[in-house]
Design goal:
- The protein is mainly alpha-helical.
- Helices cover about 70% and strands about 5% of the residues.
- A two-stranded antiparallel sheet has the order 1-2.
- It is globular.
- It comes from Halorientalis brevis.
- This is Metalloprotease.
- Keywords: Hydrolase, Membrane, Metalloprotease, Protease, Transmembrane, Transmembrane helix.
- One of its GO terms (molecular function) is metallopeptidase activity.
Length: about 210
């Protein structure tokens, strides 16, 4: 990928889109995990869940998109995140229906690039989430109280984001990785989706 410093900067519009996507995704995951509290207007539970989501969804989502941006810039491209407000609305509505469709936006990049470079840019996001799940895991295993909940939700969220984004569908990262290298796609797709499904349906929720 070359060497040298990567000059990462953000426009006001990009920072606004990051913030809007962060909050909307946190709302969606709050609803998904605590629909009974929402229906029962249990405000303290919802506030706590929203705080947990901000810390875990926020870190997972922001670093996922930043990974795309940094690698794109590393390849000499101009890259900027744009939120998809229609998809953010769908994320919240889908959470109310009992599932999550989280495609909050994308890092758009301009400049000449190869299929390999595009594949690596796409791969950076899900791989970052897998790494973050490993970072949160010690908190999930050994911490108690609020920090233990942060750790558990951090593992769940990041494994979900990795698995979901590796699906070879539409604008998701998996399709770009598959178009670049089928072996790399399978090597990342299989464990990401398996762990993502386990995180959402087999992991013991601590809330």
């Amino acid at each position: 990928m070359g060497s040298g410093d990567v000059n990462v900067s953000f426009s006001i519009r990009e920072l606004f889109d990051f913030a809007a996507a962060w909050v909307a995704l946190s709302v969606a995951f709050t609803i998904f995990f605590q629909r009974p509290a929402l229906l029962g207007f249990d405000v303290p539970v919802l506030v706590r869940m929203f705080a947990l989501s901000l810390l875990t969804v926020g870190v997972g989502f922001l670093l996922h998109e930043l990974a795309h941006k940094v690698i794109a810039i590393k390849f000499g491209k101009v890259a900027e995140f744009r939120a998809d407000y229609g998809m953010l609305f769908i994320a919240i509505v889908s959470a109310m229906a009992g599932f999550i469709f989280a495609a909050p936006g994308a890092v758009y990049h301009r400049g000449r690039s190869t299929i390999r470079q595009n594949g690596l840019i796409a791969l950076a996001g899900p791989v970052t989430n897998l790494g973050l799940a490993a970072v949160f895991l010690p908190l999930a295993l050994f911490a108690g109280g609020f920090f233990g909940q942060v750790g558990s939700l951090g593992v769940i969220i990041n494994l979900f984001l990795a698995g979901f984004n590796m699906l070879p569908f539409g604008p998701l990262d998996g399709k770009t990785v598959l178009n670049w290298n089928k072996v790399v796609f399978v090597a990342v797709f299989v464990p990401s989706v398996a762990l993502g499904v386990y995180a959402m349906f087999g992991f013991s929720f601590p809330f």
